[in-house]
Design a protein that fits this description.
By secondary structure, the protein is an alpha/beta fold. It is built from 13 helices and 16 strands.
Length: about 375
């Protein structure tokens, strides 16, 4: 536990996930930064010398102004109201000199870790270079803990390693879904059945009801022989959906009606309909645990956001343990101010799904 670590006056490498959306050279959504503030403030209070590493975007080993961490460091400084120093690069002599000169409670932010291609290769030499900057390592980047990257996995072989408060909270709260209080309602939407299949297979046997919307529902409807016209679906997942119906059919609740848009020679499903909303809200009201991943319609459009909004409102009104994961879903819920009474909102998309599927996440396993 980080709380038990001796970090006073020690240099500490803190891996975070500040992969935030940018708008005109500034941070567009600072929620991921804010989620790590309790850990950073604790480290400052403990007089640690903090070296923060993160990635942003997909630079694929190339330096680019568009993926620079400079705007993120400025936003962090604003939120903390403390001086934050921006490193001139990721590693190297100049970066090490600045790290070595940090005062207790000081904060240094490295440039984009993925500017160095060795990060995503889990390269041990790069991990050693990062480790040479510090005395202790802390992982508070749950959202990338399913990736065996140098700053997530390999670095732990060279430094005493701990979980930050956000990572601890993610594990504690997502574990409530793996051992839910019943009735347990699972709500799945969004796209790509293939990304959610393992999680569905793990949680569906525990669930009292599995409510399905979004493009995922289109694939299930197609598998049932329903006419979805020009609606998007995962063709390679039809057989798997049919198998899931055979195994969990009594628990699965598909849309009984939906909102459509006319397109050439047909229609496209864009949201769940009013009767489906009523059914989903009724099931949420009965539940003691609700887990939700994936929007139930094309929530980018105001005309097809009603289903997602209705579910968010229902989750705010229940006394059940309510947990949401998935960037797009979390974004809509926060944007609409419907996050106030949600028990826990995960910062992880893929990481949360893999954790709930019972898979071993490299970043978490490394800390053991």
């Amino acid at each position: 536990m980080l709380q038990n670590a001796n970090i006073k006056n020690k240099k500490l490498f803190l891996r975070v996930d500040f992969n935030v959306p940018m708008k005109q050279g500034a941070v567009g959504d600072n929620n991921r930064i804010k989620s790590v503030l309790p850990t950073i403030k604790y480290l400052v209070g403990e007089k640690a010398k903090i070296i923060i590493g993160t990635h942003c975007g997909r630079p694929e080993g190339k330096v680019s102004k568009d993926t620079s961490i400079v705007p993120i460091a400025k936003e962090l400084q604003r939120l903390l109201n403390l001086k934050v120093t921006m490193a001139p690069g990721v590693v190297g002599d100049n970066v090490k000199k600045i790290a070595d000169s940090l005062q207790s409670g000081g904060i240094l932010v490295l440039e984009n870790l993925r500017w160095d291609k060795r990060e995503e290769e889990n390269d041990t030499v790069f991990a050693q270079e990062l480790a040479s900057l510090a005395d202790v390592y802390v992982n508070d980047a749950f959202a990338v803990s399913h990736r065996a990257n140098a700053s997530v996995e390999a670095i732990t072989h060279y430094l005493p390693s701990y979980a930050g408060f956000l990572l601890q909270s993610e594990i504690e709260n997502l574990s409530k879904v793996r051992k839910p209080r019943h009735p347990f309602v699972l709500i799945i939407g969004g796209t790509k059945v293939e990304d959610k299949a393992n999680m569905l297979d793990k949680l569906a046997p525990m669930a009292n009801k599995v409510l399905i919307g979004g493009e995922v529902a289109n694939t299930f409807l197609k598998a049932e022989g329903m006419d979805i016209s020009k609606s998007l679906y995962s063709g390679n997942m039809i057989a798997l959906c049919q198998k899931m119906f055979q195994k969990y059919g009594k628990r699965i609740v598909l849309p009984s009606d939906y909102v459509t848009e006319n397109v050439d020679n047909g229609f496209k499903i864009v949201d769940i309909g009013s009767e489906t909303i009523k059914e989903f809200v009724t099931q949420i009201a009965k539940a003691k645990t609700v887990f939700w991943n994936g929007n139930l319609g094309y929530s980018e459009s105001a005309n097809s956001r009603e289903g997602t909004m209705a579910i968010a409102k229902a989750m705010n009104e229940t006394d059940a343990t309510t947990i949401i994961a998935g960037g797009n879903t979390v974004g809509v819920v926060k944007e609409e101010g419907l996050d106030k009474n949600i028990s826990f909102i995960s910062t992880g998309g893929g990481a949360a799904l893999e954790f709930l599927a019972g898979e071993k996440l490299p970043g978490i396993e490394a800390l053991k």
